[in-house]
Amino acid sequence: MENAVPQNPTLELLVAAQHELRDALNGLGGHEGDGLLEHYRFWTTSHINRTAEGYIYLRTSDRIDASKHLVRPAIEAAFRLQAVRRNPVLLFRIAFSEFEEDRKWLQATALKTNPNAPASIQDQWNTFRTAYASKYPSHQLIEEYLPLRAAAECAGLEGYYDTHYRLYCKFTHGAFRATTGNLNEFETEDTRAMILCVLVAVENLTLLGAPAPNIDSLKQRLGDLIPEVTS
Length: 231
Known about the structure:
The protein starts with 8 loop residues before the first helix and ends in a 6-residue tail after the last helix. Helix 1 runs antiparallel to helix 11, helix 4 (71-86) packs antiparallel against helix 8 (158-172) and helix 4 runs parallel beside helix 10 (188-206). The chain is built from 11 helices and no strands. The chain is mainly α. The protein folds into 2 domains: 9-89 and 148-229; 91-141, no CATH class.
């Protein structure tokens, strides 16, 4: 049984949006993805769905402080989804960025016990690069790290990066003001931010042919809560 939702219009909207996202994901059952781009969209939107589910559970269980730690992951995923939506070529830079992080992690953890680890991950990257080039021959393969700020700019959401993303980083990093509750004045933004991320996920799923019959009405309800979203 799903948790009862308190009489809170913003949280009720998030629950409705998450249900739309869940149904859109389920609606792709049996769909064969055509490659890397579709797989990226599917699994990243699935990640946002799981994050939203956890947020709703914590919020309806009165774990308000704990729920705040889930906002930043959703925002980060939404930035990259929208960046790739606007410019699919960025998918390769996102993949390269993750490869670089994995390589650094392996150098720090596995080098002493597995000297072949760096060569192994490099081989994996070379294989991926070849497959990517074959799948998307028109894409320029730029092996350059894509900072999240740059992804937000490409998504047209740099203003959101400088405001909301920076705010929720404080909870992730254990900033003193966050740990003491001195940032609770911004609490009304928590659920609104999650709604925006969930709707970004739903819209990206529609590019795969997923059903989303209520997306327009949900966006309108969000616009009523945050007028600048639809202005």
